[in-house]
Write a structure and sequence with these properties.
The structure holds two protein chains of two kinds.
Chain A: E1 10-21, E2 28-39, E3 43-47, H1 54-61, E4 69-74, E5 77-78, H2 84-94, E6 95-98, H3 110-120, H4 125-138, H5 154-166, E7 172-176, H6 184-198, E8 204-209, E9 220-225, E10 228-234, H7 235-241
Parallel strand pairs in A: 3-8, 3-9, 6-7, 7-8
Antiparallel strand pairs in A: 1-2, 1-4, 4-5, 9-10
Helix pairs in contact in A: 3-4, 3-5, 5-6
Chain B: H1 6-37, H2 39-43, E1 49-52, H3 67-74, E2 79-94, E3 99-107, E4 119-122, E5 132-136, H4 137-143, E6 154-157, E7 160-168, E8 179-183, H5 184-190, E9 200-205, H6 211-222, E10 225-228, H7 229-243, H8 246-275, H9 277-286, H10 290-322, H11 336-363
Parallel strand pairs in B: 3-8, 5-7
Antiparallel strand pairs in B: 1-9, 1-10, 2-3, 2-6, 2-9, 4-7, 5-8, 6-7
Helix pairs in contact in B: 1-8, 1-10, 1-11, 8-11, 10-11
The chains are: A alpha/beta, B alpha+beta.
Chain lengths: 242, 372
């Protein structure tokens, strides 16, 4: 199944993407000609069971993994043409990440964790910390800016992870199972926050999840199984049909 | 990151500190022991050239010289003056019956050349009186325990009863025996009779003549061996290195300290890297380059090294500071060269452990962060 094409709006475009792991008898064909798109100004969900290939697709879109065949265009760039160092720079300045396990560095405070991408980009520490604190304030975490991750609740850690993902003002935000480590109400709360602060006209948000409780935050949901996108549902289309 | 894991951080710091302490401490003791082998050579400050039998290997094993040898040396044009020196072992006995072998140094009757320079009681002039000796701190403390450094006590040396005229601060000898100084003519009466008793001839070269040249002329014109104090001291040190188990034993201890330091710091760093792999993966995914991550880890390694090394060196310095008044441990000290060598070795170990561990970070697939 194909998503409606509005090429000017596309932040991510995958066409006929194939990816295999292993060789010979152990070869595993994880992606079998995936077509997938994510638009600017939208929150696109990639939904699928374990082993469906969604993490592999996410890694390819993030530029962390090379696909075997097909075309992948992210923010107008063909990622296969980026060399290793350029890929890292591309991610640093254009892509924000939210991980399933948050992956906040234990020795750094919430503000320092949020400031990591700016510090890595060479922004002066004082400036980076001011920006991090302002972002944490927006996320309702201003009073916890100086706290170490092990003193934060799961919801608070996720909000710090959001701040880290958004601090460079990226064009694409990639979230991997952002609510899987949170209880239901907290999950919905942080998704509401993410929607409010991350969804911008010039930014696409791509979320991989199998948490059905948060699907109502999506603008589009692409369902993947056995390495193929088999269904795409977009809220606007549904409204138009009605 | 490492500082966030306090048990591992302190474990690493302590491993480096202990390794540093053990290495610097054992090296200091080793160097101190070797320094002790040439203590009597170092204590002779007023003559810079030692003349001896050509087959002499080190200061503690001598073949005696004849008076004719002394006159021959005096006849060398480059020699300003030359005096005899006796070195031997004498049985010393206090009035209360306490006895012990002592290193006996017989210095020239007229010039008293060969006496140490620092006196704790009395002075060099006291030795000009008949039947008078100077004794070092260890000897004084052994024969006259509990007494402040003073003169006037009696000590039996061989067949002679001698009076303590001075207490000197002699360098500690290799075997921690008392050192007794007497005039040459009396020292030679304290030991068993031999035909010849002169151990060495101490020489002062003429002004303006190079010491090596003085030695060369003595060798050529007398057939005797002539060495500067420095060369003779090193010959003695090398003799002990070649002919005793000291370097091997200390070498083993230092190698074990290095190995333990390397293993512990290597394993801890490796565990640290392994346990933090997902954070490194996250940083790589975010876009932090390998070089920056490696530099970050190396910086942590350097900080850990600096703290651990400073602690270890401080412990060693404290040990020698606390024991400097102990008569059995005097002379042992932490030299700047040992601090540098230990620092270099420990830094190499930490760097090697870090570099080996860091390889895993460089090759880790950043996509690992999406695999739960």
């Amino acid at each position: 199944m194909e998503m409606p094409l509005q090429r000017d709006d596309l932040a991510v475009s995958c066409r006929g993407v194939h990816k295999s792991f292993g060789e010979g008898a152990t070869k595993l064909h994880v992606l079998r000609g995936v077509d997938f798109q994510a638009r600017y100004g939208q929150m696109t969900f990639l939904l699928g069971p374990s082993g469906s290939g969604k993490t592999t697709l996410l890694s390819i879109i993030a530029g962390l993994l090379h696909h075997d065949d097909g075309a992948v265009n992210v923010l107008g760039r063909d990622l296969t043409k980026l060399r290793n160092g350029q890929g890292a720079l591309f991610r640093l300045y254009n892509v924000g990440f939210v991980f399933q396990q948050f992956n906040l560095i234990p020795a750094l405070t919430a503000a320092e964790n949020a400031a990591v991408p700016l510090l890595a980009a060479g922004v002066p520490r004082r400036q980076a910390m001011e920006r991090a604190k302002a972002l944490l304030e927006d996320l309702g975490m201003g009073h916890r800016a100086g706290v170490l991750p092990n003193k934060l609740s799961g919801g608070e850690q996720q909000r710090v992870a959001f701040a880290r993902a958004l601090i460079q003002d990226p064009k694409l935000v990639i979230c991997d199972e952002p609510t899987s480590a949170l209880d239901g109400p907290t999950g919905r709360h942080v998704m509401g926050l993410l929607r409010r602060i991350a969804v911008q006209p010039d930014r696409a948000v791509l979320i991989v999840t199998h948490d059905a409780r948060i699907l109502d935050f999506a603008d589009c949901v692409a369902e993947i199984s056995d390495g193929v996108i088999h269904k795409v549902t977009c809220v606007e289309e549904e409204k138009e049909k009605c | 990151m490492l500082t966030g894991d306090k048990p591992k951080y302190f474990g690493l710091v302590l491993a480096i500190a202990f390794s540093t302490f053990l290495m610097s401490h054992q090296m200091s003791i080793f160097v101190g022991l070797l320094e002790r082998t040439r203590s009597q050579i170092r204590d002779v400050q007023d003559a810079r050239i030692w003349v001896m039998d050509p087959k002499t290997q080190y200061v503690d094993e001598v073949r005696t010289l004849s008076d004719q040898n002394l006159y021959s040396v005096r006849g060398v044009s480059a020699v300003e003056w030359a005096v005899p020196l006796f070195k031997g072992i004498a049985r010393a006995k206090a009035v209360d019956g306490t006895f012990r072998n002592a290193i006996l140094m017989g210095v020239d009757d007229a010039s008293l050349t060969g006496l140490p320079q620092k006196f704790l009681a009395g002075d060099a002039g006291a030795l000009r009186a008949p039947r008078t000796i100077a004794i070092d701190r260890v000897g004084f403390a052994y024969f006259f325990p509990g007494q402040p450094y003073s003169t006037g006590q009696e000590l039996e040396l061989g067949p002679l009863v001698m009076r303590v005229g001075a207490v000197v601060d002699a360098s500690p000898p290799f075997v921690n025996l008392p050192v007794v100084y007497a005039r040459y003519s009396e020292a030679t009466q304290m030991v068993g009779r031999e035909r010849r008793l002169m151990s060495f001839v101490l020489v002062k070269g003429r002004q303006g003549v190079d010491e090596a040249e003085v030695c060369r002329q003595i060798r050529e014109q007398t057939g005797l061996k002539a060495l500067t104090s420095s060369d003779f001291g090193w010959d003695t040190i090398w003799y002990y290195i070649r002919n005793t188990g000291i370097p091997i034993n200390f070498g083993i201890t230092i190698a074990i300290a290095l190995l333990v330091g390397a293993l512990v710091s290597g394993q801890t760093f490796s565990l640290f890297i392994l346990e933090n792999m997902r954070y490194f993966g996250a940083l790589k995914a975010i876009g932090v380059t390998n070089i920056r991550i490696v530099l970050m880890i190396l910086l942590q390694a350097v900080v850990v090294f600096l703290i651990g090394y400073s602690l270890g060196i401080s412990w060693t310095a404290l040990f020698f500071e606390l024991t400097k008044e102990n008569l059995d441990l005097r002379g042992f000290r932490l030299l700047p060269e040992i601090m540098l060598i230990t620092g270099g070795l420990v830094f190499s170990v930490v760097t090697a452990a870090t570099v080996l561990s860091v390889r895993r970070v460089v090759v880790v697939d950043p996509a690992v962060v999406f695999r739960g």
